[in-house]
Amino acid sequence: MRKLIVRILVLGTVAALVLGGFYLVQNASLGTKEEIALAAVKRGDLTVRSFFRGELRAVRSLTLTAPNLGSQSQVTKLAPAGALAKRGDLIVELDDSERVAALEDDRLEVEQVQEQLKQAETELEIRKLQDDVELTRAAFQVRRAELQVRRNELISAIDARKNELTLEEAQARQKKLEGDIKNRLAQSEAELAVIRERLTKAQLDVNREQRRIDDARVLAPISGLVSILENRSGGRGGFGTTTPTVQEGDQIPAGLAVAQLLDLSEMELVAQVEEVERANLAEGQEALIRLDALPGKLIHGKIKRLGATASINVFRGEATKKFDCILSIDMKELLGHVGATPEQIQRILATAEQNRSQGFGASRQGGAVGGGARGGFPGAGAGAGGGQPGGQAPEGAGAGRRQRGANGPGGAGGAAPSPEMRERMQAMLAGRQISELSAEERQQLRQRMQQELGGAPGGGGRGAPGGFSQQQRESATLPSPPDVGSDIDILLRPGLLADAEVIVENLRNVVYIPYQAVFDTTQGPVVYLWNGRTLEPRPVELGKRSESQVVILSGLEESDQISLQSPDGPATPRKKAAAKTSQAPGGLGRAF
């Protein structure tokens, strides 16, 4: 009995210890849950910065399209992807054997029509001589009848009447003969006109085939990086599939975008900014750019252009609309960071000036040019985005693209006319507007502009496609592969990612708190102030804000303790948004 009591006491003691431990653990966990994250209200200087991430893009980019050779053509030569092409280098060559055969047939047709024309003209001259003889005979018959009529007074009335009838018959025969000759001449002239039209058509066919043969070799209108695009002919490509790039031996249709030329001598940073950041940014603001490929290197830039409307890209999983932001880059500084010598920097900057002087100015989305098209004013065209090396076309590059002739004078995609071109055009217009000109006057103005500029932006042989002479087109060669180029040319590539930092404003002696501590209520923004025992809501008036801090205009004092979380439950959507934006894109820290 005594042992049983001892055992019961031991078991009771153990149970009490277990229950006590469980109670202590519960109290400890509850205490942890009830802990409040507090932050102190600070006073001092606050720097408002904006951070965003983007990628490098060539300021000037031209899309070269397959020329119209009448049918699908085979690619016989193609510049290597990533090669640096100079103006006049061969980019794409298509098989023109069918066009050469068609040209020979058209030339033979021209010769045959010319022989027919000569024969018809000779027959017409012979017929005219025969008609002149017949007219002379008819006139002789009329004259002889007139002489017989003069003898009527000396002969009988019957013979006199016969002479009069003979004269009338001769005159009628002469008049009929003149009408027949006139009709035959009109008919012969009409037949000659038909033959001449056939000759003109045959000559036009010869010129068309010759132009197609010339267009089969597409040369580079500017110096730049070669980017081979995807072969989307025949319905290739689609959502979730990989489309191969254009390669030698492919059969491609006319108008297919084959390659892009990206001018690396002048680059810009393309980024997107949140709606809340748009109000803090303005064109001309200084920026610090950090390229992922150049760690520890700072490059200065400026905001060149800000989008007027916000857009959203659902394919990237974006939840909010963003504004486009384009930043210019200090090319001298960038080239110096990649190891360029002063001579190389001067050469690269001279290339940019050369491309600008040829009418290929900076464009918002690059340019689209193609072989085979003709006409248009120099510098006119529409853009299509800068591409990425290795054959990947930029997102949305094909939308709204207006393709102009790479071998025509309007080849600069999105390129505004240079001041010199504008002055020449205004001088030719003599105070009139282009919209006031007739179609014939516009054609004459276009021809004069082509003659003034040598057939295309940048000059060249007059009237030659793309401003290149026949000898230049025949002697053009492919650019060297990218591995032969310099390290500087290889390092400068569109598509490199970079972070940009813009100092919006330096605020002096202001009261600020973490933006995470501000919550939206029906009464407006509030913070939860710690009074030593509980949290009490305190309405506040907000000022300017940075990525993670916000200025308090009224409602709080320095050293007040505020809560970073709402005592009512989970964080509100505003707190979640603040927590999401508290870290810079790409892992850049915030320094305030």
Considering the chains and any ligands shown, give keywords for the structure.
single chain, six-stranded antiparallel barrel, 592 residues, six-stranded mixed sheet, 23% strand
Output the strand order for the largest sheet.
2-11-14-13-12-17
Q: In angstroms, what is the radius of gyration?
A: 43 Å
Question: Major sheet, described briefly?
Answer: 6 strands, antiparallel, barrel
> What count of domains describes the coordinates?
2
Task: Describe the structure in your own words.
The chain is α+β, with helices and mostly antiparallel strands and 592 residues long. It folds into two domains: 56-94 and 217-491, no CATH class; 97-200. It is 36% helix and 23% strand. The chain has helices at 2-33, 97-149, 157-215, 275-278, 331-337, 342-357, 419-429, 439-452, 470-475, 487-491, 573-580; strands at residues 38-40, 42-58, 61-65, 73-78, 84-85, 90-94, 217-219, 224-228, 251-252, 257-262, 267-274, 286-291, 299-306, 322-329, 367-370, 404-405, 497-514, 519-521, 524-530, 535-539, 541-545, 549-554, 561-563. The strands form five sheets. The protein has a six-stranded antiparallel barrel with strand order 2-11-14-13-12-17. α2 (97-149) packs antiparallel against α3 (157-215). The protein is elongated and about 190 Å long. The relative contact order is 0.17. Residues 29-33, 363-368, 370-416, 454-465 and 570-592 have low confidence and may be disordered.
Short description:
The chain has 592 residues and is an alpha+beta fold. It has eleven helices and 23 strands.
Question: How is this fold's topology laid out?
Answer:
Layout: H1 2-33, E1 38-40, E2 42-58, E3 61-65, E4 73-78, E5 84-85, E6 90-94, H2 97-149, H3 157-215, E7 217-219, E8 224-228, E9 251-252, E10 257-262, E11 267-274, H4 275-278, E12 286-291, E13 299-306, E14 322-329, H5 331-337, H6 342-357, E15 367-370, E16 404-405, H7 419-429, H8 439-452, H9 470-475, H10 487-491, E17 497-514, E18 519-521, E19 524-530, E20 535-539, E21 541-545, E22 549-554, E23 561-563, H11 573-580
Parallel strand pairs: 3-15, 15-16
Antiparallel strand pairs: 1-23, 2-11, 2-17, 3-10, 4-6, 4-9, 5-8, 6-7, 8-10, 11-14, 12-13, 12-17, 13-14, 17-22, 18-19, 19-20, 21-22
